[in-house]
Amino acid sequence: MALLTSDPRIIVLAFVGGIIPSLLWLWFWLKEEGHSEPKGLLTIVFILGMIAVVIVLPIQKFIQTYVNSEEFQIILWASAEEMLKFIAVLVVIYRTKYLSEPIDWPIYLITAALGFAALENTLFLIKPLSVSGATVSLLTGQLRFLGSTLLHTIASGTIGITIGISFYMNNTRRKLYLFLGFLFAIALHSAFNFLIIRNNGNDFLQVFAFLWVVTIIIMLLFEKVRRMSEIIN
User: Fold this and answer.
1) Least confident of 34-43, 67-76, 166-175
2) pLDDT per residue over 174-193, tens digit each?
3) Between the CA of residue 70 and those of 14, 53, 64, 77, 201, what are the distances in Å?
4) pLDDT in tens, 145-156
C-alpha cells in the first residue's frame, strides 16, 4: 500500500479517484439485479468493505513477516481479503430478511467487494498523486479500475453466486458450493496478484483479458441466479 500524505487535497483527490470506479460498478450490478435493495443497508455493507481494508493490512503484514514462501504469502493475502469481505456481509445481514432470495448474496458480496476496492485504490493512488501529479495517477487509477476493482468484484461475486445457486439445496451441498466458491475466488485472486507482482504489470493486458472472460461467465451466472429469484417470487 502507498504511504500516506498530510496534504488534504491529495487525500481527497485519491479518495474520489478510488471511490468513483467502485460506485460505477455498483450502479451496474444493481441495475442488472432488477429490484432495489435498501440503500441504507447497501451503504453500511459498502463502508464495512472499506473498513475490511484497514483490518487486513496488519494481517497481511503478519503473514509477510512470518511466512517465508512468496507464493504462500500471496495465497494467504488473497484468502484474508476474501474472508474479510465475506464477514463484512455476515456481520450486517446474516439471518435477516435481506438474504431471503438467491440474488441477495451476490449483490451484497459485490457491494462489500467494491467498498474494499474503493479504499484499496484510494491508498494506492496517494503516492502517485504525491510524486507524479494527476495525469500519471489518472492513468494508474484507470488500470486499477480495469484490473483490481474488477478482480474484487468477480472474486466476491463468485462466492455470492455459488451461494445463490445452492440457495434451495440441502445443507451439505450448500457447504460444498460455498467451499468451491471460496476456492475459485482465492485461486483467481492469487493468480492475479502473482502475475502482477512477478511480471511488474508487464502482462497486464493478458491478465485483463482473462479477467473479462471470467467476468462474462460471472454475468451469465448472475443472470441465472436472478432468474431463480424471479421464479420463486
Assistant:
1) 34-43
2) 999 999 999 999 999 998 88
3) 29, 21, 8, 10, 17
4) 557 888 999 999
Q: Which residue has the higher pLDDT, 53 or 143?
A: 53
How is residue 96 written as a grid cell?
435477516
* Distance in angstroms (rounded) separating the CA atoms of residues 54 and 41: 21
Report how far residue 124's alpha carbon sits from residue 122's, in angstroms, rounded to the nearest whole number: 5
Phi-psi label, residue 94: left if phi above 0, alpha if psi -120 to 50, beta otherwise: beta
Q: What is the model's pTM?
A: 0.88
Q: Which three cell numbers stand for residue 211?
A: 479477467
